[in-house]
Amino acid sequence: MKFSVMMILLKKALKHAEVMRFSTYTFRKSTIYALSSGHGKCGVAVIRVTGPKASNAVQAIAGFSKLPEPRFAHLRNFRNVHNGDIIDKGLVIWFPGPKSFTGEDSCEFQVHGSLAVVNGILNSLSLIPSFRIAEAGEFTRRAYFNGKLDLTEVEGLADLLNAETEIQRKQAFLQSQGFLSKLYLEWKNDLSKELAHIEASIDFEETENLDSNKDESIKNISRIKQQIETHLLNGRKGEILRHGVKTVILGKPNVGKSSLFNLLCGRPAAIVTSTSGTTRDVLEVRLDISGYPLILVDTAGLAKHSSDPIELEGMKRAVEQLDNADLIIVVMDASDYSSWKINNKYLTFKDYLKCYMKNLELESYFFDCSERRSKPTIFVMNKSDLYSVETENVVSISCKTEKGFDNFLSTIGVELNKICGEPTKEHPCMNKTRHRQHLEDCLSEQNIFIEKYKASDMDVVILAEHLRRALRHLGKLVGSTSTEDLLDIIFSEFCIGK
Ligand SMILES: Nc1nc2c(ncn2[C@@H]2O[C@H](COP(=O)(O)OP(=O)(O)OP(=O)(O)O)[C@@H](O)[C@H]2O)c(=O)[nH]1
Ligand SMILES: [K+]
Ligand SMILES: [Mg+2]
């Protein structure tokens, strides 16, 4: 048998294996239920049911002899399945499959949100034959297996449930609506077309035809490759937005770092005293600034001469924070600046800044552009109530009077926008290590393909296999090929009832 024919048969077998995996899941299906709204006392609680026997819940609990009109809210008495007592009066909505979230027959009960009512309904559901309580993420898992959502949409939904700020919400919502998968599917489609050309030529042994298409093929694949590369570069923004922008406050002792930290938090989270070296440990809070998630870190002041082992440890920890910082806020003291003189002359701000950073032994972080360590930085001159400094590239503020604080907030907002960007439908950002991994692997397969194809030093059949692998990585991204382990990780991010 020819090698290329073997490859085609192997490919078909792999496809079959995928279909098998999907169908084994359907065999395991039972009807599941769960409280989908938050736990604890609340105005209204939502209980969801999905699975082949969901209609039994509508009939047994809401007392319909014939199923009600789908997707309409019906006000009904809900009865205890065991003794017929009325538990509560509420709304029931019937969603016959496949037009439901999971794609299966589903229904939703909206009841008064007390523990007793919710337990009453859940107990009744448990008495209906073949009903069981849902596992965490099981509703979404079913939606995925029924083709209602692909994997990046599932991830987007998980992020949406966890979103803390407006821009995080926007990124997650766009992803849950399929804008990221749309991009990946476009690339998958384009690459598939290129592969189809090559496969057709192999099957019919049309080597002349293959040669004439070579330049066109290389051009098309290079274009896709470049789009993926740009997407990866932008992806760093999406990843930071998803995790939060780690923002480290640094400076000499007593300049007002903790005062600024507290002002941003809106509460006295850190101890502030006039004693130099007050802060020792690294303090961290999560904040929402202009819709962006900020992980704000207060650190010990960096003193040049210290023999106190606790202070030295604090400084070591402060500097370590720089390694994975996304944004740095360097705080200075205006009264300190005003007192610095060299040869009896006051320093320009630029010279002062150089000396200041040299004192902190952090010059290379900010001034050595050849080093990759240079990070986005905001320079803040605090204590402007004592001495006013109006210079370019420095934000003047007084933590004592709060003068200049609004200006400081908008400066942070601008930086955050530069760091995270703002996700749009046209440019959705990747935001997970999983995405990066598959895209990088996809790129490296494309690179091998282009290089070997150009040099004509590889059998075309093997060459095509590199394109196939590149495609498989895109497939893994949207979840048309995935493993149970990966699915377990992704669905574990959901709570019960989603
Ligand atoms: N006049 C004036 N005093 C300030 C201002 N901000 C902070 N201070 C005072 O400066 C002193 C040091 O403030 P902290 O916030 O503890 O300074 P820090 O940089 O965190 O100090 P360490 O943790 O010791 O490194 C305190 O006495 C504050 O009240 C300001 O804007 N104006
Ligand atoms: K202090
Ligand atoms: Mg402090």
Provide a descriptive summary of the structure in words:
The protein is an alpha/beta fold and 498 residues long. Among the domains are: 33-148, 2-Layer Sandwich (Gyrase A, domain 2), CATH 3.30.1360.120; 246-400, 3-Layer(aba) Sandwich (Rossmann fold), CATH 3.40.50.300. Helices cover 50% and strands 16% of the residues. The chain is built from 17 helices and 14 strands. A six-stranded mixed sheet has the order 3-4-5-2-1-6. Helix 5 packs antiparallel against helix 6 (166-176), helix 7 packs antiparallel against helix 8 and helix 8 (207-243) runs antiparallel to helix 15 (433-455). The chain is flat and about 95 Å long. The structure holds guanosine-5'-triphosphate, potassium ion (K) and magnesium ion. Residues 254, 273, 275-276, 278 line the site of potassium ion. Residues 251, 253-259, 272-274, 276-279, 301, 382-383, 385-386, 398-400 line the site of guanosine-5'-triphosphate. Keywords: GTP-binding, Nucleotide-binding, tRNA processing. Its main location: mitochondrion.
